[in-house]
Design brief:
This protein is mainly alpha-helical and about 190 residues long. Helices cover about 70% and strands about 0% of the residues. The protein is elongated and about 75 Å long. The protein has helices spanning about 20-35, 40-50, 55-65, 70-85, 90-100, 105-110, 115-130, 140-150, 155-170, 175-185. Helix 1 crosses helix 3.
Length: about 190
């Protein structure tokens, strides 16, 4: 096995006589067969498969023109799916979309579709589902675990603490001291 720099970018089964545009088109179709992809994801795949940049641009532009790739639509579907399925908040969804190569205007538009009331209800449902597993822990530990879980899902600290405080209060636990200590750590 050679060093990284000595490896050919073209796969071993690639036929050099094959039309590069047809090859790039087939690579994109194969990728889209499994799941929707962003333009940036397809461009990365084409680059890794050794497709010349001008050929990749030509194929990607045509796919966008006919609606086979649409980053704005992808972003909207991603936000809806990941919020419902994983309970992710706008901040986490924005980060995921950035990693997938979606541009900022499309991200902002997709995340703006999230209803703040639905996002809050989702945070409450996440805490309610996780709350029983924290019984038996100290109030401080419960607050840290539950607020930390919401933070990892992209919820702002204020929302996370409010939702956890409400859930613990419904159980009859006073979490004010724990919240004061944790909020002091954030400042």
């Amino acid at each position: 096995m050679g060093s990284f720099g000595s490896r050919s970018a073209a796969p071993a089964n690639w036929d050099p006589s094959e039309d590069p545009v047809d090859r790039a088109r087939q690579i994109c179709l194969n990728q889209l067969e499994y799941a929707p992809r962003t333009r940036a994801e397809l461009a990365t795949t084409l680059r890794k498969k050794g497709v010349e940049p001008d050929v990749a641009e030509q194929v990607l532009s045509r796919f966008a023109e006919v609606g086979m790739i649409d980053d704005a639509l992808f972003a909207q579907m991603w936000v809806t799916s990941r919020h419902r399925g994983r309970g992710l908040a706008g901040r986490a969804l924005s980060q995921e979309l950035r990693r997938k190569g979606v541009d900022e205007p499309a991200i902002a538009e997709a995340v703006a579709e999230l209803d703040p009331a639905v996002e809050l209800a989702t945070a409450r449902a996440l805490v309610a589902r996780r709350l029983p597993a924290t019984r038996g822990l100290t109030v401080d530990a419960r607050v840290r675990r539950l607020a930390g879980m919401l933070a990892r899902k992209g919820y702002p600290a204020g929302t996370a603490f409010r939702v956890v405080r409400e859930a613990l209060a419904e159980e009859g636990q006073d979490a004010e001291l724990a919240f004061d200590e944790l909020q002091a750590l954030e400042e």
